Amino acid sequence: MNPxxxxxxxxxxxxxxxxxxxxxxxxxxxxxxxxxxxSLALGGTIxxxxxxxxxxxxxxxxxxQRFSALPGNTRLDLQVTGSGAHELSDLxxxxxxxxxxxxxxxxxxxxxxLSTVKRRSGYLDIVLKYYENEILEGSASxxxxxxxxxxxxxxxxxxxxxxxxxxxxxxxxxxEWQNDWTIQGRLPLQVELTMAIGAKGEEMRQIFWLPPKxxxxxxxxxxxxxxxxxxx
Length: 232
What we know:
Blueprint (H helix, E strand, L loop, with lengths): L14 H54 L6 E7 L6 E15 L2 E14 L5 E8 L22 E18 L4 E3 L11 E8 L6 E6 L6 H13 L4
Antiparallel strand pairs: 1-2, 2-3, 3-4, 4-5, 5-6, 5-7, 7-8
């Protein structure tokens, strides 16, 4: 009896092999996409952190430039209400004329104010306000000038979602730190700012020097008195 002829194996894939191959491909594609998403999320987090760091540095640089360039006749006023996480403050700098364009018009601000504004979320916005007139009590332009506007003509939100924002000032006479400043006629020696952004934000602390400068009005008065004095 002749043995049965051996049938050659047909080329191609069986249904089971195709299913396994598709499952393996889907697994590999899923792993690739998961890795790509993780990389994109990490890259986005790094970029966000870098942008936030640049914003914070720009904010501190703005304050440093402003404090170092204060005229000698600047009046600084720091008012604080509340305490801890509920502390709100208004830091006012008067007699610091700034000329700039706002709304297509040339404007001059005699007073600027950095205020904390509490939001419903519980976080703070740091708002820079510009005033056309002097707004502090006891100023020369506030006597009998109820018609002058004490509302800001412009304001800009500099920081958002601030967890806390606390000032301290160093009195050059007593060399003691205090939480407010209402003394007229002189400026503190240093201004310290402590703040944090967001619920998990790290505490940031910066100290600004206020270099002593002569009041230009006092210098002019002395020059006039010296010129009027015989033999002066």
